[in-house]
């Protein structure tokens, strides 16, 4: 049935088609039109020649380009969770050649109807909103649009929140490789500091003790291995492999990670700390003694990972000297020398702009979003443009582009089906689809992954919609049982590493009890006593936080759990009020909240640290190319030069100062002083 705006839509479509005919056909439109056409095809399927004739974007291609694009489009649909099958033995007819018949099975492309309760819908919404990573967050929004017809829910006041981020830059490509069973190659640094290229078949990933691990089959060594992501020192590249073994039946990343013993994973560090400095390390020390170096103390503490610990030690600069073990000392020296080389190297030309570009989505992501918009509107019968924009986090321009693309989906040959019908300028939006598209399409592997992981995280947290998350998870896992590789990812709550502290905080949040804490401030390198009124427990990637009103600072603050070095729960209760609501939403989304007196500086970030740059909420950005890597420049506000020095040192060459030049020179001098303790010659301005 045509909508009331069908005539107007036809005119608009005609105009759009005229433009499309004069320009290159959108690849997203092409491969989704392939899907829409096949969904309407006769049960026997369509020949390649029929598809070539029916779909705009195929007809004008020569044979070679058509074959290439057809295979690529099938691969794109496979990423969306839709498999095209080919059956031999098509009959001859008067117009189309004989050949294989291509089709999709509607039973394998549509989500079975799932009845979620209102509480389960709330849990699904919470699970989708856990993801702060742009790619996974978009997938979560698309999945939610196809799973539930509920309107946007107000869940910001939940006492538990999370920003599930990939954290490690290599985690995103490794996750995709593990889910799809694709072999990869990367450079890996051993405990000894030696680097080598490893070719592996990823089986799964998971977090333990705040660290991410890859479980994989090493293709050269022909045995299973476990790799710490913090020791992967290159990009993740696809690699060819013959005879790659499949993931073992019944594989569980959680079972593999359970083999890691906290005691076996711990090593004792030996450092010399300047008197009164490194208060967090002193609080965790197993021994503090006198040192032959005047003005310093000998301090020993336990750590899990040399690379992760070297970030903290490098950020202390000249206030620390690592004396052992060698792997930790070498890791700190590598960070300092890398930071100095970047800080004193050539600065690329750049021009800062006020807008922060989010980058163009991939064709598969745009297709998934377009199909999810169709499901979103169909669930409601009609939907306002503002409602659609808010749900999918897109601009008005992007929405209009998506709706234009949707209006062109389907075959040009009306004998093979109809197109999706809508007025892409209307508000509210109403969409009429062929009957074959009335049921939402299956979740892609990535979409199922983010929702299942989000629900698993919620189900571990008492005080939230735990029961609803568990029941929604059971229904979703049953609907995605054809995707058993979801067990390849084991995401453990970071708070589980210190259940005593996290338990005390969660009780304080639930019971509205004041909490006395001793909190380490890295900017001032001091531990201060605070009395806080906790209102929310927050996780962001590998870090857990408590959001609380601080009586000493008289404002809402975000406290990292790993910087709370002492705590005591009191019997005093408080009544949540206006002071607890202030800035709550902003604090949960922007973890670095600049103060009014913070100064503006321009920092260069390696492109893999885009997430860190976003957390600093840059006012202006630019792109550039360094000697060995792509860079993102951002104008950010920071709390003094000490914060900048430590940030640069911690990231070992992936962050450096470009403006002001005085701060850049000062940071270089700070790094040289830090390296003197290790007998590193920096007189020439370059670390050796």
Automatic annotation (TrEMBL):
Name the Pfam families for this protein.
Answer: HTH_PafC (PF19187), WCX (PF25583), WYL (PF13280)
Where the record annotates domain WCX, the positions are 266-340
Concerning InterPro entries, the annotation shows: CBASS_pafABC_assoc_protein (IPR051534), PafC_HTH (IPR043839), WCX_dom (IPR057727), WYL_dom (IPR026881)
Outline the extent of the PafC HTH domain.
368-477
Superkingdom of origin: Bacteria
Indicate the segments forming the WYL domain, all copies.
Answer: 170-234, 504-564
Under which name does UniProt file this protein? WYL domain-containing protein
């Amino acid at each position: 049935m045509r909508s009331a705006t069908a005539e107007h839509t036809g005119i608009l479509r005609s105009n759009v088609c005229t433009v499309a005919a004069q320009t290159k056909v959108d690849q997203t439109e092409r491969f989704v039109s392939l899907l829409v056409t096949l969904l309407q095809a006769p049960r026997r399927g369509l020949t390649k020649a029929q598809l070539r004739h029916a779909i705009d974007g195929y007809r004008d291609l020569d044979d070679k380009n058509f074959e290439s694009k057809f295979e690529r489009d099938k691969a794109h649909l496979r990423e969306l969770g839709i498999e095209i099958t080919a059956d031999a033995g098509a009959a001859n007819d008067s117009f189309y050649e004989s050949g294989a018949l291509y089709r999709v099975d509607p039973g394998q492309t549509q989500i079975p109807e799932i009845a979620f309760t209102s509480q389960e819908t709330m849990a699904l919404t919470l699970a989708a909103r856990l993801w702060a990573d742009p790619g996974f967050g978009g997938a979560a929004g698309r999945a939610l649009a196809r799973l539930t017809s509920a309107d946007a829910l107000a869940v910001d006041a939940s006492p538990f929140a999370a920003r599930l981020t990939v954290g490690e830059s290599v985690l995103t490509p490794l996750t995709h490789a593990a889910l799809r069973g694709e072999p990869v190659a990367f450079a890996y640094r051993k405990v000894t500091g030696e680097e080598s290229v490893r070719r592996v078949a990823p089986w799964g990933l998971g977090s333990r003790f705040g660290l991410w691990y890859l479980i994989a089959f090493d293709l050269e060594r022909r045995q299973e291995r476990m790799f710490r992501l913090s020791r992967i020192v290159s990009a993740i590249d696809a690699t060819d492999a013959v005879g790659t073994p499949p993931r073992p039946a019944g594989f569980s990343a959680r079972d593999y990670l359970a083999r890691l013993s906290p005691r076996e994973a711990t090593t004792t560090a030996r450092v010399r700390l300047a008197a009164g400095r490194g208060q967090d390390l002193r609080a965790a020390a197993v021994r503090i003694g006198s040192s032959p170096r005047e003005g310093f103390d000998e301090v020993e503490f336990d750590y899990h990972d040399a690379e992760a610990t070297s970030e903290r030690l490098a950020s202390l600069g000249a206030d620390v000297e690592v004396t052992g073990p060698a792997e930790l000392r070498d890791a700190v020296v590598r960070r300092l020398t890398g930071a100095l080389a970047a800080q004193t190297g050539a600065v690329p030309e750049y021009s800062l702009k006020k807008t922060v570009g989010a980058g163009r989505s991939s064709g598969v992501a745009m297709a998934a979003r377009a199909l999810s918009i169709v499901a979103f509107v169909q669930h409601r019968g009609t939907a306002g443009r503002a409602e659609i924009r808010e749900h999918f986090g897109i601009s008005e321009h992007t929405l209009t582009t998506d709706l234009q693309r949707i209006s062109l989906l389907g075959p040009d040959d009306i004998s093979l089906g109809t197109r999706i019908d809508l007025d892409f300028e209307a508000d509210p939006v109403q969409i009429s689809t062929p009957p074959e598209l009335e049921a939402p399409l299956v979740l892609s592997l990535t979409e199922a992954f983010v929702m299942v992981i989000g629900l698993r995280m919620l189900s571990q947290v008492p005080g939230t919609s735990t029961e609803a998350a568990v029941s929604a998870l059971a229904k979703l896992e049953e609907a995605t049982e054809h995707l058993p590789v979801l067990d390849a990812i084991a995401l453990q709550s970071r708070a589980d590493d210190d259940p005593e502290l996290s338990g005390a905080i969660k009780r304080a949040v639930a019971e509205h009890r004041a909490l006395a804490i001793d909190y380490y401030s890295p900017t001032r390198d001091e531990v201060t006593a605070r009395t806080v009124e906790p209102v929310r427990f927050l996780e962001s990637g590998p870090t857990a936080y408590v959001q609380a009103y601080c009586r000493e600072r008289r404002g809402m603050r975000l406290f990292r759990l790993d910087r709370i070095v002492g705590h005591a729960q009191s019997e005093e209760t408080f009544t949540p009020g206006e002071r607890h609501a202030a800035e709550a939403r902003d604090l949960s989304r922007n973890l670095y909240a600049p103060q009014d007196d913070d100064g503006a500086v321009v920092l260069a970030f390696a492109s893999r640290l885009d997430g860190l740059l976003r957390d600093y909420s840059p006012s202006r950005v630019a792109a550039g190319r360094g000697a060995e890597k792509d860079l993102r420049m951002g104008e950010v506000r920071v709390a003094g030069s000490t914060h900048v020095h430590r940030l640069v040192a911690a990231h070992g060459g992936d962050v450096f100062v470009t403006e002001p030049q005085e701060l850049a020179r000062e940071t270089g001098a700070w790094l040289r002083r830090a390296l003197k303790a290790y007998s590193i010659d920096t007189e020439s301005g370059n670390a050796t």
